[in-house]
Amino acid sequence: MAISTRISTLPKAELHLHIEGSLEPALMWQLAQKHQVILPYSSVAEIEAAYQFDSLQSFLDLYYAGADVLRDEDDFYQLMWSYLCRCREQNIVHAEIMFDPQTHTLRGVDYAVFMAGFDKAITQARQDWGMSVLLILSFLRHLSEAEAFDTLAQAAPYYSMISAVGLDSSELGHPPEKFARVFAKVRELGFKVVAHAGEEGPAEYIWQAIELLEVDRIDHGVRCQEDETLLALIKQRQIPLTVCPLSNLKLKVINDMAQHNILQLLDEGLLVTVNSDDPTYFGGYLNDNYVQLEQALAMNDAQLKQLLINSFKASFLPPAQQQQWIDQINAA
Ligand code: HPA
Ligand SMILES: [Zn+2]
Fold first, then answer.
1. Given 24, 199, 200, 294, which residue is catalytic?
2. What is the ipTM for the molecules in this complex?
3. Is the entire prediction scored with pTM above 0.90?
4. pLDDT of residue 2
């Protein structure tokens, strides 16, 4: 079977996906009309054409502006439902999905609104095709630690819907150490911990995420190669990295996909995974990211299988459930 067919047909998990980054331009346009939000674009095609970035910040500016069209429960339902339908098409059988509460609460949209919308879509996907979904609450790191504490407290009625807590937004100048105390509280509450680190920020931020936040996974982490001691530690402890190739290309973390280090890290024995990050902004859902690795880096079948297996091994699913999917991949 051709590798591209195997990419699309084999079961996979997605572990690094911002739900606000899956907002399709067509839905953005429709919701802007619905709520009479004035967008700085005059058509869906103009929205798509605007997605040219030169850094993480240049993307985040459009990502937060786009999220402003999300106002009521049905908007959040539509957003989540569209992504889950993509998962079904792409054979993503399990997804661990990040959401940014502060992007909404700061605009006066409460937890009750977005959590109800998410829950309705997730319940439907679970019932209709047996998809499994976990949610990851992410703090915006350009805001203060006090605001992160507030955000965590406001989530209390929804703790049973949340599996992990993460850290995203503008990395440079906002090191993990800024959030050490709030993540101590997060761990005390029993949540898993993830953090974006080593995307644009230096290897030092990955150290801090591991040592101060005690993360279960690193989001991105591609700059770990700049520090051999760190690389050895990540390998020895098998700390998963949720790598996002198309995101790295679109945000100019790399200049060319052929330069991406994901397969080197994989071959060195690190627990790396492939993810789409913000698929509508970066021009591809999960399978497109795997296809890029085949086209630019000549990913072979053994590497593909290992990446798919890693997507379950690095997940927060119970080990027995992970193993069922891994057995299916091994048998394919
Ligand atoms: O790739 C990302 N990095 C940091 N923050 C983000 N928020 C959405 N996507 C990202
Ligand atoms: Zn991300």
1. 199
2. 0.96
3. yes
4. 87
Give the structural domain span for 135: 3-22+68-331
Q: How far is CA 271 from CA 47, 151, 304, 323, in A?
A: 36, 31, 13, 16
199 belongs to the catalytic site: yes
In this predicted structure, the answer to whether residue 114 has a pLDDT above a threshold of 90 is yes
Half-sphere exposure of 295 (CA within 13 A, CB side): 11
**In-domain check, residue 35:** no
The number of distinct structural domains making up the chain is: 1
Ligand in closest contact with the CA of 200: 1
Task: Give distance in angstroms: CA of 17 to centre of ligand 2.
Answer: 6
CATH, residue 119:
3.20.20.140
Q: Is residue 94 annotated as involved in ligand binding?
A: no
Q: Which atom of ligand 1 is least distant from the CA of 63?
A: 8
- 56-110 residue pLDDT tens: 999 999 999 999 999 999 999 999 999 999 999 999 999 999 999 999 999 999 9
Task: Please answer whether residues 217 and 234 qualify as being in contact, where contact means their C-beta atoms are separated by less than 8 angstroms.
Answer: no
